[in-house]
Write a structure and sequence with these properties.
nine-stranded antiparallel sheet; two-stranded antiparallel sheet; Fibrinogen_a/b/g_C_1; 11 strands; 372 residues; disulfide bond; alpha+beta
Amino acid sequence: MHTLLILVCCSSILVNNCVYAQHLHEQIEISKTEILDVILQLSGKIDTVNRKTDNIQKEIVNIQEEMTYMKLMFGSNGLIANELNDKLSLLPTHISNMAVNMGNSITDSVSYEIKELKKDTNLADRVADINSTINQMDQRLSTISIGVQDLAPRRSCADLYKLGRKISGPAQIAPYMHSCNYVPVLCDQDSDGGRWTVIQKRQVVEPREDFQKPWADYAQGFGKLEGGEFWAGLDLLHALSKQGNQELLIELEDWEGEKRWAKYSTFKIGPPEDNYRLTVSGYTGDAGNNMGYHNGMPFSTHDHDNDNWYTESNCASYFGGGWWFKACMNANLNGVPNQGTDTLNSHGILWVRWHGRMYSLKSTTMKIRPSE
């Protein structure tokens, strides 16, 4: 317990440091942006000086050309020509003065901006200091991120696999959003690339687990994870579904030792207020697509009937177990355990498209993982 509290406190400190470091990093980025804006403004004003100087030079050339033309036109008229020459001769000086005044005005403005910037600190030194601070903060953030990753909640067996825990068996995960509450699960890190969270297990053990449970037990989960039979719980299935699209793998075995499988590329369980409604599609495998029949159905138990069967009837009460019954089923992997054909019609662990309704399977496993 003390170790867990220490880990929680360390996690909180690391997260707070990470938030502070991120805030400081953002402030540094803002300062860099402000300096770059000043540099861009200065560059823009210098470009403006250059453009206006070029325009003045072009105007001078145009006026000089007009002066030459007028001299040719009025050269024979002595008085008019002399007066015109006197006035035109003043134009270059006037234009030159205008250019100088305009240039001085812009130069003064640029000089003022530079002086204001230098009052704060030397621009090159400031940029260098900012870059140095950024590098230091990046190193701190990297260290903090590694620490936070070590203490980060594991939301599924797939997360454990990514973090290097590639051994199958019982584990603890924190599947619920915005919560570090851990729950026990069984991970399969070997089958078909691993990353599976096992959600159901039926097998021949003594004593057998009773799957004729009420609604509350199916919501919470029950059974023995290691070496026994269990149901992981509808709340857990819904929490894993909220993390993103899941795929479902069902493994079946009969009493003659033959094995079949069914895989679905989409598997989702709705919230409790929608009675944990099933969404399943994208079948592949050799066992037959029985889950497709139950797609869109809410979950039912003997004390919580949603099966669309006769008004006074209840599939879970009559055939046993809790399932996404649909008046009543093509599959019921939570049914009453019987041995092979030693069963009544539809009473047993059923997968109808493999062995029909008069055969109860020996073992089953249901497991899910995030789609890639």
